[in-house]
Amino acid sequence: MKEYSPVKEGKVREIYDVGDNLILVATDRISCFDVILHNIVTKKGTVLTQMSKFWFDFTKDIVKNHMISVDVKDMPEYFRQDKFNGNSMLCKKLTMLPVECIVRGYITGSGWKSYQENQTVCGIKLPAGLKESEKLPEPIYTPSTKAEIGDHDENISYEQSVDYLEKRFPGKGKEYATKLRDLSIALYKKCAEYALSKGIIIADTKFEFGLDENGEVVVGDEMLTPDSSRFWPLDQYEVGHGEPSYDKQFARDWLKANPHDDWTLPQDVVDKTISIYLEGYEKLTGRKL
Ligand SMILES: Nc1ncnc2c1ncn2[C@@H]1O[C@H](COP(=O)(O)OP(=O)(O)O)[C@@H](O)[C@H]1O
Ligand SMILES: [Mg+2]
Predict the structure, then answer these.
(1) Ligand 1 mutation pick, 208, 211, 225, max ligand atoms within 8 A of CB
(2) pLDDT tens string for the chain (289 positions)?
């Protein structure tokens, strides 16, 4: 049996190259404040992968995506091991477009900070008088460059994204930039409206797109997971302050209260975190894992 090792190992995800395709594996690791904790959050990786699968299926009328299968039977034999079962997605290898396509439907985080300074978010002027966590009149598209390793991502305007893509794909900058913007907004709108009906606010999110073998723009990476988005429980939503994050709040709170810890959560905090991930999945998909 051919063995594989990851071509890339991130804090939480691992990527395997299997020829024309990639396998994206979401592990059960958890990172908080940019540190990988010592705990394993059982099933977290499966929740993330199955959530992406749900959204890829849900949005295929808007845009094609890179997903081929989440069934390890469709993957090389090496992946038919327990540790890959459920948390792995076989994907078409794409030529990625190096733009992080961020859509914000609510004002929070760095956007709220910048709004308080000059009433703009990433150069987009917003109405006066917005409160923290308030819904925006319309979702806004605020792309950033996808930095090379070691560099920081940088916010750019839509116009800058045209030039940025034109440099890398001559003659195509305008076409790709427009597609990324329009597809991102369309995906966000459809999914946020659906999530709201299930009791979850998708405050903001990030998509990544690439070109398939026919040069068509398709959506890749993970999609609308708690790692790429801010999910807020609707029943606790209140403007005027920050919102609890759906996924890591217990872990973050505990770490803040125990600053001298060596990044190991007590089991009851891990258990609460697991149940939050499962609850989010069940609410959104209406299915049990
Ligand atoms: N279908 C695909 N083909 C090629 N690269 C992909 C595909 N889907 C996602 N990627 C890339 O795989 C990588 C996923 O790695 P990740 O762990 O998220 O780290 P990071 O985002 O910091 O690079 C990203 O660089 C993403 O752009
Ligand atoms: Mg990433």
Answers:
(1) 208
(2) 999 999 999 999 999 999 999 999 999 999 998 899 999 999 999 999 999 999 999 999 999 999 999 999 999 999 999 999 999 999 999 999 999 999 999 999 999 999 999 999 999 999 999 999 999 999 999 999 987 766 778 899 999 999 999 999 999 999 999 999 999 999 999 999 999 999 999 999 999 999 999 999 999 999 999 989 999 999 999 999 999 888 888 899 999 999 988 999 999 999 999 999 999 999 999 999 9
Pocket of ligand 1 contains residue 93 by CB under 6 Å:
yes
The ligand minimizing its distance to the Cα of 13 is: 1
Concatenated DSSP letters of the chain = ------SEE-SSEEEEEETTEEEEEE-SEEEETTEEEEEE-TTHHHHHHHHHHHHHHHTTTT--BSEEES-GGGS-GGG-SGGGTTTEEEEE--EE-SEEEEEEEE--HHHHHHHHHHSEETTEE--TTPPTTPEEEEEEE--EE-PPTTSPP-B--HHHHHHHHHHHSTT-HHHHHHHHHHHHHHHHHHHHHHHHHTTEEEEEEEEEEEE-TTS-EEEES--S-TTTEEEEEGGG--TTSPPPPTTTHHHHHHHHH-TTS-S---HHHHHHHHHHHHHHHHHHHS---
pTM of full prediction above 0.85: yes
Q: Is the C-beta atom of 220 inside 6 A of ligand 1?
A: yes
Interval between CA 158 and ligand 2 midpoint (Å): 21
Domain 95-236 in this protein, CATH class: alpha beta
Q: Does domain 8-93 have CATH number 3.30.200.20?
A: yes
Q: Give the distance (Å) from ligand 1 centre to CA of residue 221.
A: 6
Spans of all domains in the chain: 8-93, 95-236
Q: Is the CB of 104 under 6 A from ligand 1?
A: no
